Amino acid sequence: MSVKENKETYVSYSRISNPLKKFRFIVIFISATFLLPYQQAESKQLFLKCTGKFEINRGALIKPDWETSYLSINLDGSKSTLIDKGIKTEGRTLIRRNSYTITTREKSNRIKSIYKIDATHFIYTVNYAKRKRTLIGTCQKSRG
């Protein structure tokens, strides 16, 4: 009789162990996926080198009347950085259809300048609120 009892207990033990083995496997698999290090996603950026002249002819000057700006536009639509005359500033980015609009503000939250870039022809305009002047030019893609 002892042999028969061992078989029965073995069979009942194996029935319990299969669900436990599956449960353990699932728990180990889920915990392993949470413990793996995730790579941080970098936002996509567009780097542009833009040169432009002021809309009004200012006559003969000692300094050239063209300006070069370096733009890095964040394509996720948050903040973009501008390097204009060696000064690095940040602005809010608005992306609509084939154009990018970057608005820079002063500390008192007044609009300082508005950069509008056409994405198809890479033509850009800068409206300076205080100076009441407009800069018009072209952009080229560059490396960041």
Topology overview:
Layout (H helix, E strand, L loop, with lengths): L1 H34 L9 E10 L11 E9 L4 E6 L2 E10 L2 E7 L5 E8 L4 E6 L4 E9 L3
Antiparallel strand pairs: 1-2, 1-8, 2-3, 3-4, 4-5, 5-6, 6-7, 7-8
Note down, in words, how this protein is organized.
There is one protein chain. This protein has 144 residues and is an alpha+beta fold. It contains 1 helix and 8 strands. It has an 8-stranded antiparallel barrel with strand order 1-2-3-4-5-6-7-8. The radius of gyration is 31 Å and the shape is elongated. It starts with a helix and ends with a strand. 12% of the residues are buried.
Residue stretches low in confidence (pLDDT < 50, at least 5 long) are none
Mean pLDDT, nearest integer? 78
Q: Could you spell the SSE succession in H and E letters?
A: HEEEEEEEE
How many strands? Answer: 8
The share of residues in extended strands comes to over 45%
Question: What is the general shape?
Answer: elongated
Structural class: alpha+beta
Main β-sheet description: 8 strands, antiparallel, barrel
**Quaternary status:** single chain
Rg, nearest Å: 31 Å
- What is the CA-CA span between the terminal residues? 82 Å
Provide the spatial order of strands within the biggest beta sheet.
1-2-3-4-5-6-7-8
* Helical percentage: 10-25%
Tally of helical segments: 1
